[in-house]
From TrEMBL:
Gene (name only): LOC107017038
Signal sequence, start to end: 1-27
Protein name: Serine carboxypeptidase-like 11
Entry similarity comment: Belongs to the peptidase S10 family.
Lineage top rank: taxon: Eukaryota
Length: 477
């Protein structure tokens, strides 16, 4: 269970007060919104796109010095009535194009390894855009194709980043009034577990304040979400369950470390220190993102959901070279996006402004650290607020993720202390067990995705599509 008085609770409350102290009435002028562009063809995709793709920039922040890039894909079913989703990829600093091509969007790379030519794209039948309109937002500034107009504007704190997302949404709806009445959900994964609940709070407060345009907020969804500071403590029981460390070591740690397994906070007795060192040794060279996958160079560490400020040094990567066992794995497919998105033909097709970025990177976590300031890594109180207001939520976990293990997610959900209305059971796709699920009286549904890693749709795209389709349609998983 998460502790009720953990170390960052004061900073979390301070952040909440800052959010509430923001101007309550925000009026957006249509003159502030810039026209978007429709994309009918993409280099690497054979023929016209079989879905409606729009890209563009929206200026946010003081004097619109933060220019946030987005991809908008209309629902392929009934755009006028289907829900509108604003999707935030984690990091911070990972491009929302991850969502478009690797996770929940309509595209995928046909090839598995770069061969020197422009990577080729195909359309997937398991896109969430089959049943929903989705905006994939590049945030915070410096992410993907988003950029700052001045050097000073490149620096942002997490409070402002949340405000920028809210400002973006209001401005986008002004420019797209036909979607203002659609049911709206905010979604994301990994580090977005910190951002999404806070932005939902801003939207909810804005609705109560009468901010225009009104957002038809119905709920939110999160995958393997980073949620509270002690999350890493739940890695230890996960390692036991995965047979990475022996039960005897776990029992010794429970006795000597008293439930605190982060080196910077753990008890200083010799036995606890020794136990933690053994865990370091046994878990070294294990892929954080999916413990069954090979560890492929620096890619795994790059996507770790824990900013270095808040994590210990328990895991490391010894080699950056890619071994033969890595060929065709996610690390290679991720590299395809770097080749594709940096091609001038691609950037022209996407209507990217020339000269605004030096180099596109799928994830800029290491590069963004010097510009992004973290003030709090806790969002439990926001989940509690949203539950009290009756918003729906879907929380799901790839059950082979070591970075944000399902045990920690289940722990903070349990701490909300809501009664269970649909107890732990299997959910099925194509006659096979796709995972396990449980629903609560606060309109929260929790699900595991069997065999998936940190970003569950990357590993189980069809299963995650079915999960989303059922939930967004108010059907049981």
């Amino acid at each position: 269970m998460p502790k009720s008085n953990y170390s960052l609770i004061s900073s979390s409350m301070f952040l909440h007060l800052l959010l509430l102290a923001l101007p309550l009435v925000i009026q957006i002028s249509p003159l502030q919104v810039q026209a978007a562009a429709t994309v009918k063809f993409l280099p690497g995709f054979d023929g016209p796109l079989p879905f409606h793709l729009e890209t563009g920039y929206v200026g946010v922040g003081k004097e619109e010095k933060h220019q946030l890039f987005y991809y908008f894909i209309k629902s392929e079913s009934d755009p006028g009535n289907d829900p509108l989703i604003l999707w935030l990829t984690g990091g911070p600093g990972c491009s929302s194009f991850n969502g478009v091509v690797y996770e929940i969007g309509p595209l995928y790379y046909k090839q598995k390894k770069y061969n020197g030519s422009l990577p080729t794209l195909g359309a997937t039948p398991n896109s969430w855009t089959k049943v929903a309109n989705i905006i994939f937002l590049e945030q915070p500034v410096n992410t993907g194709f988003s950029y700052a107009t001045t050097p000073e504007a490149m620096h942002v704190i997490d409070v402002d980043a949340c405000t920028h997302v809210y400002q973006f949404l209001l401005k986008w709806l002004v420019d797209h009034p036909e979607f203002s009445s659609n049911n709206f959900y905010l979604g994301g994964d990994s580090y977005s577990g910190i951002v999404v609940p806070r932005v939902v709070q801003l939207i909810s407060d804005g609705i109560e304040a009468g901010n225009k345009p009104l957002v038809n907020l119905k709920g939110y969804l999160l995958g393997n979400p980073l949620t509270f500071p002690e999350e890493e403590n739940f890695v230890i029981p996960f390692l036991v369950g995965m047979a990475i460390i022996p039960i005897e070591l776990y029992q010794s740690m429970m006795q000597n470390c008293k439930g605190e397994y982060r080196k910077e906070f753990a008890p200083t007795n010799a036995q606890c220190t020794q136990d933690l060192n053994i865990v370091d040794e046994l878990s070294n060279n294990i892929n954080d993102q999916h413990v069954l996958d090979p560890l492929c160079g620096s890619e795994t560490e790059l996507k770790s959901p824990f900013p270095s400020k808040f994590r210990g040094s328990r895991r490391s990567i010894q080699e950056n070279a890619i071994s033969p066992s890595c060929y065709g794995k996610l690390v290679d497919r991720h590299e395809l996006s770097n080749y594709w998105a940096n091609d001038p033909r691609v950037q022209k097709a996407l209507h990217v402004r020339k000269g605004t970025i030096d180099h596109w990177a799928r994830c800029k976590q290491n590069g963004i650290k010097k510009y992004y300031t973290f003030t709090s890594m806790d969002s439990i109180s926001y989940h509690r607020n949203h539950s009290a207001k009756g918003y729906r939520s879907l929380i799901y976990s790839g059950d082979h993720d070591m970075g944000v293990p399902f045990q920690s997610t289940e722990a903070w959900i349990k701490s909300l202390n809501y009664s269970i209305v649909d107890n732990w059971r299997q959910w099925i796709v194509n006659g096979q067990v796709a995972g396990y699920t449980r629903s609560y009286a606060n309109k929260m549904t929790y699900a595991t995705v069997k065999g998936a890693g940190h970003v569950a749709p990357e590993y189980k795209r069809e299963e995650c599509f079915n999960m989303f389709k059922r939930w967004i349609s108010h059907n049981p998983l």
